[in-house]
Amino acid sequence: MKLNLFTILIVTLLLGGCTEQKIDRPSLIPLPQNITWGDSFFKLKKGVTIAYQNNNSEKLGLSKFKTEVNELTGLLLKEVDIDGDITLQIDNNTKEIEAYTLDVSSNKIKITAGTERGLMYGLETLIQLISKSGEVPLVTISDTPKFAWRGMMLDVSRHFFTTDEIKEYLDLMAHYKMNKFHWHLTEDQGWRIEIKKYPKLTENSAWRTEKDGSKYGGFYTQEEIKDVVAYAQKRGIEVIPEIDMPGHMVAALASYPEYSCTGGPFEVWNDWGVNMDVLCAGNEDTYTFIENILEEVMPLFPSNYMHIGGDECPKDRWKECDKCQAKIKKEGLVDEHQLQSFYIHQIEKIVNKNGKKMIGWDEILEGGLSETATVQLWRDFHDQDAVRKIALMGNDVIVSPTGMCYFDYDIETTDLEQVYNYNPIPKGLSPAIAKHIVGGECTLWSERIPNKERLDFQTFPRLLALSEALWTGTKEGGYPEFYDRVLGQYSFLDRKGVAFGPSSKVMNITTEEIDGRFTIAIEPLIEGVEIKYKPANSSSYIPYKSPITISSSGEIKFQGFRGDKPYGEEKKYTFILHKGNSAKINLSVPPSKKYACIGERTLIDSRIGSATSFKDGNWQGFVGSDVEATLTWNKPQTIKAIQVNAFEELGSWITLPKDVEFYYSTDGKDFKSLEKLGQENKEQKGQVWTKELQLVSKIENVKSIKVVYKSGGLLPKGHPGEGNSSYIFIDEIIVK
């Protein structure tokens, strides 16, 4: 049985005997560094008072705390000058900026810190200690964070989020002691910040025409930016703006094409991935354009930092641009990579001139890095030892690896335990070098996050694990205890209306065909979660008790439930019963381990892959080689058609097969060619290309068929992975 952290036994003498009283300790996330529990409670009652003994400046976090207490208990806190039931006091001898102590005794609560920021964190811990009835367990806490940089990045360009939605997230960040909000304001798909000198950036570049013809977009006025920044400051959060450059600038170029290499015309992009068009690094006017923009942006943000992106900048346009080639020659540069470094250095001078420090994604390493730049590392797949190398150079590093910090990735790719085990500091690094690793950030790229509900789903509960990793530091073998505390946070998230997702994969769904009967089995993977399903043409869920027999093709929906509340997202599977279900299958090469799904039977288990996600467990991924799939039956079959599907998403390194060849055999040994279908035979359904071989006349006595998928080859010129092998993703081989 899992409780809200710990259960302790208070043993008291009663009438000469013993009785045990169970007391549930509150769930604290992040867990304080040092904590000693008592064996009783302090009770908040009507008329409870709070004294904030620091009258020289704003009372950071106090208004939020009073609101939280009222929401939770119904009590109204009254402010007094001295000696409150709750007293907050500045201790000038405490040097750590974010440290605090919290002492709950039988008759009062006291929080002490060296700064208002520390007092605010003490209040955030206190609100997690208070029960609905106003009871606060006796406890002594001394606490300070392990890392100074505890951040969250939100991309508002692919999809737009209102200032009210951002403020909700700032409140949640403060509750879990996150202190950096990285605001990704510009992209190919939309420009989101008012620049008065260049009004077309919001009149035109903030809006895109979607593929269905609708308009999508939005932007923040400078006054709205100031309002959000002020709101964040009251919660101890530093807001760091990002204007991404020199790539990811198509939205800006749609309004000001003169700063491109080709002169356009351009439209605000309505697709995802990496666009080939970038700022012209050989045009002196480009630098003036960016300087004017930054000199409007930077004064809006009191932060010491300005993020300039620098990631995923294709060099194709520069290679063909006379101005860029002339700049390379004039500056004595070797190639276009050094041209990007030259560009970044010029922008850093502008940033530094305005009293800021520059941050860039780890691509700014290419061609040479300045001594003062801060690097935000995301490409853990690019160089496993990159964090160590950057720190050894003496540059500060913000560690945001895709494998643990990309919360736009689905929960099956990056689950709660993976995030909990995140440690920004490589093993064996000396303290003198490790000091350059300032902390980390989770990133929420919004290609597939169209609204706040989905943002909640992707962010929580994983943000809790990141909070713990960056504030407390995680412990080997500590995940089960941490997970107990996560369960204790769900009531708070429910109260705040956070539509949180699951902590890990909710269920496994497998299929099996035996003696002509086709069944679906569901394995629940999270304790306390019940699985229900909704048969085709049904409007209500049925509790899953035993394997489901499928007698016809159709769609079945599966949903996890924690009590009466849905937990995780509804899984929709289209099942197509066909002749291939009864075959045995052999693959010439194994799929990528990460995308093996249920093994070879994935391609004949009747489940059709999603039209929008290659990570649904039905798409098998293969990298760098052709794939031969051979289906063999015990009894000869009559074949009329064979249908295969392939998924395409170039931004995720997935290309279509160059072609698909079909063969058949009547003895299982000698194969005859049926046909080869190239990419010109494709029929688009979302991101899925369907290839169907319709036979002119049926073929009888077929013992085996073979489907050969030709590799998509190397990733094309200009792609961030240019020259690397592409993936092909395939699902069900449907035999009719």
TrEMBL record:
<feature type="domain" description="Glycoside hydrolase family 20 catalytic">
    <location>
        <begin position="147"/>
        <end position="473"/>
    </location>
</feature>
<dbReference type="InterPro" id="IPR029018">
    <property type="entry name" value="Hex-like_dom2"/>
</dbReference>
<keyword id="KW-0326">Glycosidase</keyword>
<dbReference type="InterPro" id="IPR025705">
    <property type="entry name" value="Beta_hexosaminidase_sua/sub"/>
</dbReference>
<comment type="similarity">
    <text>Belongs to the glycosyl hydrolase 20 family.</text>
</comment>
<protein>
    <recommendedName>
        <fullName>beta-N-acetylhexosaminidase</fullName>
        <ecNumber>3.2.1.52</ecNumber>
    </recommendedName>
</protein>
<dbReference type="Pfam" id="PF00728">
    <property type="entry name" value="Glyco_hydro_20"/>
</dbReference>
<dbReference type="InterPro" id="IPR015883">
    <property type="entry name" value="Glyco_hydro_20_cat"/>
</dbReference>
<keyword id="KW-0378">Hydrolase</keyword>
<dbReference type="InterPro" id="IPR015882">
    <property type="entry name" value="HEX_bac_N"/>
</dbReference>
<dbReference type="Pfam" id="PF02838">
    <property type="entry name" value="Glyco_hydro_20b"/>
</dbReference>
<dbReference type="InterPro" id="IPR017853">
    <property type="entry name" value="GH"/>
</dbReference>
<feature type="domain" description="Beta-hexosaminidase bacterial type N-terminal">
    <location>
        <begin position="26"/>
        <end position="143"/>
    </location>
</feature>
